[in-house]
Specification:
2 domains, alpha+beta, Phosphorylase Kinase, domain 1, six-stranded antiparallel β-sheet, Kinase-like_dom_sf, Prot_kinase_dom, EC 2.7.11.1, two-stranded antiparallel ribbon, protein serine/threonine kinase activity, disordered N terminus, about 325 residues, Ser/Thr_kinase_AS
Length: about 325
């Protein structure tokens, strides 16, 4: 190889090699970066033997507390078994987080790879031409997402809240079935808040883990003495259904205008487009979930019942 060729490879990084990983005895090669967030990255990886592709979620842990949080996500992935909730293929830790400065570990979660991407990706493509989903598809997708949420809320021995439901956390299978992912925000559904310190801790946690434009009002300003329950997810579901109809959460629109999401959520402000292909029944279902007072908000069974009624009416019309 001449000097010029060697120089080009050095400058570009060796294009002929890819990162290899050994996870519990299975060898993978990293193909490309799929995405990254504040706490993790996701890579497309390929099993060297079977050539099957997976998604690898890497969570960098800077402390023992970070490592505990990652272990909790792995635990939720392992115990939740539902066709509309993502499965965990394998997992491991590399390194060991400690209180010593610069001591870090990394959690590796091997997950199914969804070639179609997320519901957010799908809606973004549709939005370019203002090509709304048909009402039948909207309600079908929403009904399946509700089944995943019902499984979480009915889980025994303790109900689970997802706490970060949004279209970006729903993958789509080849047959266009929704699969709920990112279980890192999952927690026991019912939280008893006793005092200002508890309230601030939960509020800070929500700000960190719950996407602002899908976050329930009671998580923006947590009262000093209250009970938070799984109806935080119902608010988020209302935002998801709005996004299925109009491509974004109603509060994404507020955020993009530069207005206060906090104030809009607390006031329950929501504007439906005047020029819409969707019936009042669909808007009523969204409004049914977006009740500012959580005690007035339905539980998941009532949402599913109304969704089924809507499906039946659609079938009759069609």
């Amino acid at each position: 190889m001449n000097a010029l060729g060697l120089s080009m490879i050095v400058k570009m990084g060796c294009i002929c090699t890819r990162e290899s990983l050994n996870i519990n005895g299975v060898k993978y090669v990293v193909k490309e970066r799929l995405g990254e967030g504040g706490f993790s990255t996701v890579d497309l990886i390929e099993n060297k033997g079977t050539k099957r592709k997976y998604a690898l979620k890497r969570i960098l842990c800077h402390s023992v507390e970070d490592q505990k949080t990652a272990m909790e996500e792995i635990a939720y992935c392992r115990k939740l078994k539902h066709p509309n909730i993502i499965e965990l293929v394998d997992s491991t830790f590399k390194g060991s987080a400690d209180i010593v400065v610069n001591a870090t570990s990394e959690a590796y979660l091997v997950l199914p790879y969804f070639r179609r991407g997320t519901l957010h990706d799908y809606l973004t493509l549709k939005s370019f031409n203002r090509n709304h989903l048909g009402v039948k598809e909207v309600v079908r997708l929403f009904a399946d997402i509700c089944q995943a949420v019902k499984y979480l809320h009915d889980f025994t021995p303790e109900a689970i809240a997802h706490r970060d439901l949004k279209v970006g956390n729903v993958c789509l299978t080849e047959s266009m079935s929704p699969v709920l992912m990112d279980l890192g925000s999952c927690a026991p559904a019912k939280v008893q808040v006793c005092g200002a310190q508890d309230a601030q801790k939960l509020q800070d946690l929500a700000a960190e883990r719950c996407s602002m434009t899908y976050r329930a009002p009671e998580l923006f300003h947590v009262e000093s003495y209250c009970v938070i329950d799984q109806r935080t997810d119902i608010w988020s579901l209302g935002c998801v259904l709005f996004a299925l109809c109009y491509f974004k959460s109603p509060y994404d629109i507020v955020y993009e205008k530069g207005d206060s999401v906090n104030l809009a959520v607390i006031s329950g402000t929501i504007h439906f487009p005047e020029d819409t292909p969707f019936s009042q029944d669909v808007h009523d279902l969204i409004s049914f979930m977006l009740k500012v007072n959580p005690s007035e908000r339905p539980f998941i069974d009532s949402v599913i019942e109304r969704t089924r009624d809507l499906q039946n009416r659609i079938e009759v019309v069609v």
